[in-house]
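ESCALATION

Customer reports they have been waiting on this structure for their group meeting. Please prioritize. Original submission:
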Amino acid sequence: MDIILVPGFWLDASSWEKVTPALVAAGHTTHPLTLPGLESADAARAGISLQDHIAAVVNFVDGLDGKVVLVGHSGGGAIIHGVADARPDRVARNIYVDSGPLGEGGAINDELPAEGDDVPLPPWEGFEDADLVDLTDELRVSFRARAIPQPKGVAYGRQHLHDVRRYEVPATVIACEFPSSLLTEWIDAGHPFTAELARIRDVEYVDLPTGHWPQFTKPEELSQAILAAVKRAG
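Update from on-call: job pushed to the front of the queue and completed.
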């Protein structure tokens, strides 16, 4: 299976480097992506939108044969949902890593502090304690050293969806910061945060307790969770 891995904010393809070996060893072909504006700290980010990131992944899907599995971490969840909307017949399963689908008109996070066209990685005190579970001092130093400013247009831009067949794409949610039972409680309560997730017909939940960056804090466990989900994708 072709597995396309979409990073969350401030990260490029290399952020998946401890996750992909187990996927390759299991016989899959992995495609960790670096999205527009994330090529380097010096890359131009002006005018890059959420739609541009979705289009970049759609174009990659179009260059492959057969169905693919999409993995989206954090803000990457909004992107893979947009790809499922654009190519619902090409996606065998969407795997949301501590993330979920973003509905029509939603923004990934328009409250992050921006500097011009850039959204730099905030100081650690800008995150919730739950985000930082298992992120040791060593991992924090490594993360900050690799962090690339996120294009403001991706963080602040609005999601635009067109094809209800996106709800037919099976999904796996790998819950890290808080248990999946909380997500299902929100769905049952009709919470706006989970409204789009509630519309997907086939969703499974996997708990992987750690902070917001399991590709750094628990890469082996994340690999196995992804492998299990891919197996269910056929």
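Sent to customer with the following note: The radius of gyration is 16 Å.
Escalation resolved.
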